[in-house]
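Bench log, entry 3. Co-assembly request; chain sequences pasted below exactly as received.
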Amino acid sequence: MAGSSTDYIPHHLTHLKVGEGFWSLHVDTLIMTAILGIAFLWMFGSAARKASPGVPGKFQAFIELVVEFVDGQIKEVFHGDRSFLAPLALTIFILVIFMNTMDLIPIDIPGMVAGTAGAHYWRVLPTADANTTFAMSLTVLALVVLYSFKAKGAGGYMHELFGAPFGSNPLLWIPNFALNVVELLSKPVSLAMRLFGNMYAGELVFMLIALLGFAWAGALHDGNIFGFAIGFVGQILLTAAWAIFHVLIILLQAFIFMVLTIVYISMAHEHH
Amino acid sequence: MDINATLIGQVLGFLILVWFTWKFIWPPLLGAIEERQKKIADGLAAADRGQKDLEDAKAKAGDIVREAREKAVQVVDQASKRSGELIDEAKHTAVAEGERLVAAARAEVATESARARDGLRREVAALAVAGTERLLGREVDARAHAELLEQLAAEIERR
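Structure output for the full assembly:
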């Protein structure tokens, strides 16, 4: 743990990293994602293994509720074969919820646990790492391109890339294509930056609230009981309030990521 | 924002998760849900059908009861009509029988009286013959005076 309040925030924003330059890995992000991914697979896999059309148990009913919710979201927007898009959306939704939820773990506990294992840094929130959010959004971009090819054929997709929106005059091919590339790239960027920004900011607010700890600890050291009480109670109240509000952000951001994925892919899937 | 090879690792991890969900998690879960939905829909349809059958059976039972009641009324009517007829018939028979008896009695009385009268006439004729014989002192040939005797008998009969 960092010793002073000026070190505290930079310390908490540093990844456990191996390697140099581009060829480096954020070990904390990768391990947290792996743990949460396995938790997701285990949770839904155990429900899937026991799935039967009979009367479901409470856990089974809850899982099926989520599945039906996701399926219903897709049904509204996407008119095609849902057998791949639906599991994709479910994976995104649940994985992002799981990853975002890590933000609710009291901010210093993951670092302490990692510290006992000898790690100096440990960022527990994978979605506050742009690598994670871009990994998902670039996968979605690849799927958008793939679905476009599948729905329109190579010729049709090329025609759309070069012939729309201004018209198919050869002079307009370059402006058309430039605009379409911008439009295409704006999708993963907005998807990834929205989630990353929200979670990074949320994490930062928790850190700022945690700085109060230095204040009340200092007050106690100076014998200022009043200052200690204000700081102590203030930290607890503010953390609780922000955590409760953050639950909304956790679910909302996961939902937005899922719905936009569905929308982007159904836009690619539609014929023009 | 520090983009590095972590991105590649995260893409691979994400793809594995999506693939696993696509192959092993989504199909059994949605299959179970859809099959249960079908079962519930079938159950509801069966319940509706049962309700309708029950209503039909109730209506049919009502019809049968109504028909039976009508038939019963008919039977009672018929029976009372038939009994009236029987009574009438019996009355007629009794009256006819009575008349027949009376007529027979009358006829018998008539024959009896005719026979008595006949006998009487014969006796009167014999008496008359006997009286006449006594008066005349000789035998009268009844056969020779049959016409006279007959007239006498008719005279007596008229009185």
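The two ends of chain B are 168 Å apart (CA to CA). Chain B has a mean pLDDT of 89.
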